[in-house]
Amino acid sequence: MKVFYINNPASHGGKGAKFFSVIKKEFEKRNVVCEAVQTEYAGHGTEIVKNLNFENYDAVAVSGGDGTLFEIINGYFANKSVKRIPVGVIPIGRGNAFARDLDLHPEKLSEAVEAILTGKTKMVDVGLCKTSNSQFYFINILGFGFVTDVAKTAFKLRALGHLSYILGVLYRTISLKVYKLKIEADGKVYERENVFAEISNTRYTGKDFFMAPAAIIDDGLLDITLLNKLSRVRLLQALPKIFTGDHVKMKEVESIRAKKIKIETQPEKLLTPDGQLIGNTPIEIECLPKAIEVFVR
Predict the structure, then answer these.
(1) Domains parsed from the chain with CATH numbers
(2) pTM higher than 0.70, yes or no?
C-alpha cells in the first residue's frame, strides 16, 4: 500500500507539527510506503492535492482539523486524475467534527491509521456551494449570521485560546441584530428574521457542538438549522443547549432537510464553511450524494 500523507503543522494552534513524525512512523512500522509532506501556508493543502497524481497512490491521508480537511476536499475535487482514491482522516485539530462522525478521535490516532490500513471505506456526501463569483466544497458544515460573527471575533482574539470564543459570544450577544433571510429548500420558500443558519452534513460542528442531531453523512440530504429572532436572554439560554442537541426543541429553532438550497440575506452575510471565513451570500448549495470515499473503522 502506498499512502500520500499530508500534515498541517499549524492545526490545533500550532500543535499539529509534533504529530507529523509520530504518524509517519505509525505508517512505516506497518510496512506502508508513505510519502509525507507538510503544508506551509493557508490553502497549500488544496494546491498539493489538486496537483497530485492519484495514479501513483492507494490513498491520501490527512492529519489536521476540519479546516485542513476543507482544503484537502477542495483540492480533491479540482484534481484531474481519472483514478479516484479514498481519503483517510487522522484528527489532530481543535475541532474534528467530520472525524467524529466516522468514530475517529484525536486521542486514538493509531486507530485512525489502522482504519486506513484495514481498507474499510464508505461513500459520503459532500456539499457544493456557489457564490456570485466562486464555488467551493464542504464536508462538514456551512454557517452564517451570529455563528460567523462569533468566529470572526474569536479569530482576532485567537492568541487567547478557548477564551477567544467565549469573548466572541459575549461581544456578539451584546450587539445582536437579526437580518432578513429568504431560503428555498427543494422548492419550498421560507422567509424569516434570522439570527443564524447552519447547513450541516455532519452531526457535530467544532469540538462539541451537536448542531444537527439527525444529520447522516450518506443520506443525500443536508440538514438546515435556523435560529430565528429571539431576545439576548433566550440566545444565551439556547447556546448551551447546542452541546446536547436540545436547541432543536426550542420554538425559535427550525430544522429542515433538503438536497438543493438557495439563500438570500439582507444584508449580505459572510460564510464559514468548515470553520473557514470564505464567501458571502447570496448562495446556492447542493448536496452531492456519496461523492467521496473515506476510510472508516
Answers:
(1) 2-119 (3.40.50.10330), 135-289 (2.60.200.40)
(2) yes
